[in-house]
Specification:
This protein is an alpha+beta fold. It has 16 helices and 10 strands. The chain has a 4-stranded antiparallel β-sheet. Strands 5-6-4-7 form a 4-stranded antiparallel β-sheet. Strands 1-2 form a two-stranded antiparallel ribbon. The structure holds 3-hydroxy-3-methylglutaryl-coenzyme A and NADPH dihydro-nicotinamide-adenine-dinucleotide phosphate (NDP). NADPH dihydro-nicotinamide-adenine-dinucleotide phosphate (NDP) binds next to helix 6 and helix 7.
């Protein structure tokens, strides 16, 4: 069976039934996603080998975003998040985008940047040029640190050097550009930077300080585009209002912060589900949003000549399929298996698509009925649980507080007490 992500009504099943349906739809064998079950996920001893002073494990819900078609391939996407309505929103937007073929992506490649900071240079500009003259030597020295990466077609491929006036004097900053292939690349480029530092100091006739990657990974940009039909969004006025909402986020930092948070609801959930570094990706995305000096939205929504809505997003996505927790964490491995991806680029493309989908869903809701109708309806289950409802009581309590239009903990407690009185 050709894998499909169109799993209408997945919500109507229980988690175990959903997992089976997802395994089948993704073309995986029975039990392929068993590691998504807490009982077969990360063990305490595995966790104890990942970070320090381990005493326990925090469980995070993993939902499956459906309907995604990315560069012509259907993908069911794992999203690790505690926030209600995020998975539903992404799935809904992906459903709408399917009508025009889904999401199309492109990438600038897999290049990460390591910085080497040079201080106390007597002749900063002279040092800069001497370092540029030594480019080939420095690249070879970097490559010597990671023969496996070079054998895979990766490795150091350029340097750039600039002088940087600072309040402690003019510094010389070396950027080492490294193609890290399918790794996130932090450890790889940090190792190279530390190996280069003594030779850089010698050439510059100065001292080196920081040798570390930058998370402003703007040589590793992923771009995604999708067209959302006006009729599926709610008509021409909704298209115009989403475009006005986008213009607001492009022009105002206060709105852009929330607009981008909506994007990161999608991006971070997939980064986490695949065992990647959420802090690195978020630092990269937010620094990219401020790349021209003002903090702006990472995405844009525009009306097409046909009156539909085209969404575009560009962001640095430093994620890997090897290294980090991706291979060490069984649940992350199951998430990657579900995606059926073969490269870090495909993972980044998927992440960008979910970010754009999340963003569209939020902006559509905001521009149409408001965010609370969809969000709070799904949030009602969390409210019911907060009021003390058991697993068997949550659905009834949630339905009642939604019907009453009072999605609040104290009302849920009243409904719960009433439910228990009537059933005793
Ligand atoms: C919540 C919906 C989707 C309901 O929207 P709806 O039109 O009532 O949904 P529906 O019942 O017609 O279902 C349509 C599709 O949505 C999905 N869907 C729908 N419900 C579920 C569910 N329970 N479980 C799983 N999937 C669900 C599902 O894909 C379904 O189709 P199917 O695949 O079944 O044929 C809509 O109201 C929505 O998208 N709201 C936006 C909510 C949102 O964006 N939440 C994110 C958190 S808030 C946030 O991002 C921060 C923010 C808002 O500040 C960002 C910003 O300011 O930009
Ligand atoms: N963002 C930040 O500021 C920082 C983040 N980190 C953390 O480090 C974690 C992992 O960094 P990363 O460098 O990716 O991890 P690893 O060093 O664990 O993995 C990269 C290594 O995997 C090997 N490898 C095997 N196959 C491939 C392939 N196809 N492509 C590339 N490498 C391959 C290479 O091994 P070999 O060594 O033999 O070449 C490569 O060096 C990140 O997830 C992050 O959490 C760490 C420091 C700072």
């Amino acid at each position: 069976m050709t894998p499909t992500s169109r799993l209408s009504g997945l919500r109507d099943h229980d988690p175990l039934e959903r997992r089976t349906l997802v395994e089948e739809a993704a073309g995986l064998g029975p039990g392929a996603l068993a590691c998504l079950d807490p009982a077969q996920g990360l063990t305490l001893s595995q966790a104890d080998h990942m970070v320090e002073n381990v005493v326990g494990i925090l469980g995070v819900p993993v939902g499956i975003a459906t309907n995604f078609r990315i560069d012509g391939v259907d993908r069911l996407v794992p999203m690790a998040t505690e926030e209600p309505s995020v998975v539903a929103a992404a799935s809904n937007a992906a459903r709408i985008a399917r009508a025009t073929g889904g999401f199309s992506t492109s990438t600038t490649g897999d290049v990460m940047i390591a910085q080497v900071q040079v201080v106390d240079a007597v002749d900063p500009e002279g040092a800069r040029l001497r370092l540029l003259e030594a480019r080939d030597e420095l690249l070879a020295l970097a490559d010597a640190q990671d023969p496996l990466l070079v054998s895979l077609g990766g490795g150091a491929n350029d340097i750039s050097v600039r002088t940087l006036p600072t309040r402690t004097g003019t510094q010389v900053i070396v950027h080492l550009h490294v193609d890290v292939r399918d790794a996130m690349g932090a450890n790889a480029v940090n190792t190279m930077a530390e190996a280069l530092a003594p030779r850089v100091a010698e050439i510059a006739g100065a001292r080196t300080l920081l040798r570390i990657l930058t998370n402003k990974a703007d040589l590793r940009l992923t771009r995604v585009r999708a067209v959302f039909p006006a009729d599926l969004l709610g008509g021409a006025q909704v298209v115009a209002d989403i475009e006005a909402a986008s213009a607001f986020a492009e022009a105002d930092a206060y709105r852009a912060a929330t607009h981008n948070k909506g994007i990161m609801n999608g991006i971070t959930a997939v980064v986490l589900a695949t065992g990647n570094d959420t802090r690195a990706v978020e630092a990269g995305c937010h620094s990219h949003a401020a790349r021209d000096g003002a903090y702006r939205s990472l995405s844009r929504f525009e009306r097409t000549p046909d009156g539909d809505l085209v969404g575009t997003l560009e962001a640095p996505l430093a994620v890997g399929l090897v290294g980090g927790a991706t291979r060490a964490h069984p649940t992350a491995r199951a998430g990657v298996d579900l995606l059926r991806i073969d490269s870090a680029r495909e993972l980044a493309a998927t992440i960008a698509a979910v970010g754009l989908a999340q963003n569209l869903a939020a902006c559509r809701a905001l521009a149409a009925e408001g965010i609370q109708r969809g969000h709070m309806t799904l949030h009602a289950r969390t409210i019911a649980a907060s009021a003390g409802a058991t697993v068997g009581e949550i659905a009834e309590v949630a339905a009642r507080i939604v019907a009453d239009g009072r999605i609040r903990v104290e009302h849920a407690a009243e409904v719960l007490a009433d439910l228990r009185r009537s059933s005793s």
